[in-house]
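Example record used in the benchmark description.
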Amino acid sequence: MNIILLEEHELGHNLSRRDERTVHLLKVLHKKAGDTFEAGILGGMRGTGKIEKINFDGSIFISIQADEPPPPRMRLRMAVAFVRPIQIRRIFRDLSGMGVSAIDLIGTDLGERSYRDTKLLGDGGAHAALVEGAVQARDTQLPVFSVFENLDNWLDERPWEKTGSMRIPLLHAMDNVRAEGSLFYISPTSRPWVIAIGPERGWSDRERELFEKAGFMRLSMGSRPLRTETACIAAAALAMEKIME
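Model output (structure tokens):
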């Protein structure tokens, strides 16, 4: 863990000896009572934590002095097709760590429908993956996370227009079959981005028409079909180099 994060409701309470943060502080970092470490409040500021007390039952009481803002989030919204739950977990973790502002999971025509029934979205697994990414990046903020039944609903709702930004975003859909251009050659811009990543079977022709009507440009990252999770990270990394502060 690169930072110890506490939620607001955990402040002023002990962390149990089995809590992974307790284990990390005492067993991995070998911290003692009175020692300090990097810490933050989930959704708030970051700063310095201190182990105030190690109790007889192995639980610990920590305090946090948080007065430093988290790193700014990237003006990038990622829409990702439903894939295997283990891949969703990795995608959430890595995109959270990279600092994207929002992640939308969408059902697609060619995606496996059973993936939409994953328990990851209801048992706290998705939230845990987002927190894991934030911890890696020494961040306290998480991407906004939403689920859409299909591409039609996502395009109809246009969630990127509800962020309050006065800048019109660039709309891109990754497509290595019928691409209109390459993500590599997009010029740097101060406008926010919206990137849609399809399933490993790609977009259907019907979905391509929907993107076209919605004003999206279909771009490639080369001719090789990539795993959805690989495409997500590659596209986000390229966007990071092109989104100007």
